[in-house]
């Protein structure tokens, strides 16, 4: 008995051609006018370029939105810091993915690790070389109080605040990258409240 | 795997050359007189069959009445090792001969022992503190420190 061959495709070639032609006709019908340039607003001068703000808010926004970190990683907290900089936690979201090898281009020092008295003058020197304004985050137990090395006080500095002024303390041994990021956000809030013009000094003149 | 030589066997070889220089010998290690340490070390390094051409580490222990300085020696040629020790009974001014002339790697480690235990290595090219700063009082790894 002869078996009828099954139908090769659901649609025949003629039907497919007709479908394709319809898609092209529809697109052509929709595309009779050129699409306007989305950046055209840049040419309108005044309407888009007036920003009403205070000087403080503007300067603080600029400062807190791109904190660049000086490299000061004497010990193991550095690895959490590096993880926070990596793709998973991505510090670049806060405009601070760059770790500056030169303290002169940095405005934030994240002190990730134990500090010995022998190393302390060098950390002080790095801090002094950073340009104003500058901030410090003490990261981890060692940076806050000496941590597990606090009993070995003959060689370990009991907290970076003996050497340099600290703005934000991030506890943990070591702190998770989330904790560090939270500490950075705290610092950003702190910077946002900063007054850049000392009104009292102006009134004294 | 490195073969740890028996201290007793090596001690008998040393006794042939320098009689009375071995204080104590066990299968694990051998203790030599501190004033003959340098001679014994040179013998261990330069004698064929022993050829201890590599110093793994130098370290020290405080046993209250004496300090013990331990040297782990290896031979890269024969792949065997030996623990040699020397004792210092003077707590006020402990001193030992330096082995930096034989094994350069001892340089920083002898300075570390000087820094933390106060043992003076005579003949070391620059016997000064390495971890702690110049002017630090005392030697922190001594048992009577604080």
Can you characterise this structure?
The complex is a heterodimer of chains A (205) and B (146). Chain A has 205 residues and is of the alpha/beta class. Chain A has helices spanning 13-30, 45-49, 55-65, 77-85, 120-129, 141-145, 177-192, 199-204; strands at residues 69-70, 99-100, 108-112, 135-139, 168-170. Chain A contains eight helices and five strands. Chain A is elongated. The termini of chain A are far apart. The model of chain A has no long low-confidence stretch (mean pLDDT 82). With 146 residues, chain B is of the alpha/beta class. Chain B has a single domain (3-122), classed as NADH:ubiquinone oxidoreductase Nqo5 subunit (Beta Polymerase, domain 2), CATH 3.30.460. In chain B, strands 1, 2, 3, 4, 5 and 6 form a six-stranded mixed β-sheet that branches. In chain B, strands 7-8 form a two-stranded parallel sheet. In chain B, α3 links the parallel β7 (95-97) and β8 (120-122). Chain B starts with a strand and ends in a 24-residue tail after the last strand. The mean pLDDT of chain B is 90. Chain A binds chain B through residues 116-118, 152, 154-155, and chain B through 131-133, 136, 138, 140, 146.
């Amino acid at each position: 008995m002869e078996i009828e061959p099954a139908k090769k495709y659901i649609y025949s070639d003629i039907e497919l051609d007709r479908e394709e032609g319809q898609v092209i006709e529809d697109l052509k019908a929709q595309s009779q006018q050129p699409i306007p340039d989305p950046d055209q607003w840049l040419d309108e001068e005044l309407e888009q370029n007036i920003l009403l703000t205070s000087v403080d808010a503007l300067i603080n926004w600029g400062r807190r939105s791109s904190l660049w970190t000086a490299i000061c990683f004497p010990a193991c907290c550095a690895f959490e810091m590096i993880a926070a900089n990596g793709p998973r936690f991505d510090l670049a979201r806060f405009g601070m993915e760059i770790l500056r090898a030169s303290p002169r281009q940095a405005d934030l020092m994240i002190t990730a690790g134990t500090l010995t008295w022998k190393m302390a003058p060098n950390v002080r020197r790095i801090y002094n070389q950073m340009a104003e304004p500058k901030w410090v985050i003490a990261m981890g137990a060692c940076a806050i109080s000496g941590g597990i090395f606090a009993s070995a006080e003959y060689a370990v500095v009991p907290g970076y605040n003996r050497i340099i002024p600290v703005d934000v303390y991030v506890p943990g041994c070591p702190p998770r990258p989330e904790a560090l990021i939270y500490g950075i956000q705290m610092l950003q809030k702190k910077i946002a409240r900063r007054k850049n013009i000392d009104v009292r000094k102006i009134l004294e003149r | 795997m490195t073969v740890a030589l028996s201290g007793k066997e090596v001690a008998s070889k040393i006794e042939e050359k320098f009689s009375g220089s071995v204080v104590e010998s066990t299968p694990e290690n051998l203790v030599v007189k501190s004033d003959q340490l340098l001679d014994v070390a040179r013998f261990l390094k330069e004698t064929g069959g022993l050829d201890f051409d590599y110093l793994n580490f130098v370290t020290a222990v405080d046993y209250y009445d004496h300090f013990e300085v331990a040297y782990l020696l290896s031979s890269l040629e024969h792949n065997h090792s030996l623990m040699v020790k020397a004792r210092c009974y003077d707590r006020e001014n402990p001193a030992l001969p330096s082995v930096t002339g034989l094994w350069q790697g001892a340089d920083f480690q002898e300075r570390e022992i000087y820094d933390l235990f106060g043992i003076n290595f005579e003949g070391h090219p620059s016997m000064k503190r390495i971890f702690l700063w110049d002017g630090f009082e005392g030697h922190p790894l001594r048992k009577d420190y604080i």
